Structures are given as structure tokens and as C-alpha cells.
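quick one before i forget lol
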Amino acid sequence: MEEMKLSKKGNDLIKLYEEMATKGIDRVDGTKKENAYNDFQLRKFRHICKNQISNEKIKTVLDYGGGGSDWDAPGFEPKTKQSAKQFFQIERVHTFEPARGLMEKKKADCVVCMDVLEHIFIEDIPKVVSELFSLSKKLLVVNVACYKAAALLPNGENA
């Protein structure tokens, strides 16, 4: 698969997110949050996604823009303490997160892209969406936050 080329502004944004991932984020309310982008965003939608992932017999996942999501950590499902892999009965997960140097883009049965597209420079959206579809063999799960972020980029813009 040919490597996707982002615009200059898109690459500049990745550098800002790299800085936020290592130094934390300044928030609109004036506070600072360490350990930026460590929330496992799929957790909020786990019950909505579980049937579809099971019905499609998904065994491999690409977490596109996965942040600090840990598919092996216990507690994804709080009641049973299962990891995300256990909860969804997934065998293998690859993570693509350029802000953390995780560059593993591999085709998978399912591509998960949670709270990522709103952080992509608008000119690059068509390329990224096309890539999401091309990497998915069976299922694509996307969530896009459609409101202002609580975080500010290091340059002062809303994340």
C-alpha cells in the first residue's frame, strides 16, 4: 500500500499533537492535563459495537489514531475486568498513532477510528477517509466529535 501524503498543515498538526502527547495539554479552562490522549474512547461505545464486531467475526483490528488505548489492559469492561481484546474476542490489534511514533498501518478485519477525524486538517480529510476504507476488510467504526475541544494546541488554537 502506498504511503499517504498529508498536506504541510496536516504534518504541522501532527507535530503539535506529538508535543501534547509528551508534555500534556493546556485546556480552555486554564488547567493543564498530563498524560494527554490516554483515554480509551471506544470504551464509551463498547456495547453498541460489540454485536457488530461479533457478527462480522472480527479477529484483527487496526486502531487508527489510537492514542494511548491499551487493548490488553484489564478493565475495559468494568464489570468483568476484561481487556478490550477479551471483550471483543479479538486476536490481534495494530495501532497507528503518528503523534506517538506508532506507525503500524496494516489491513485488518476492522478499523477503529475514535475521536480522530476532527483533529485532521480539513484538506486531508478525503485522503484519510479513503485510507480508512482501504485498510478495512470487513468493518469500519468511526466516531467524530462535533464540538469544540476542551484542549488547546500548543499554538493556542482549539484542538
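fyi The beta strands are 25-27, 32-33, 60-64, 92-97, 102-103, 108-114, 136-143, 151-152.
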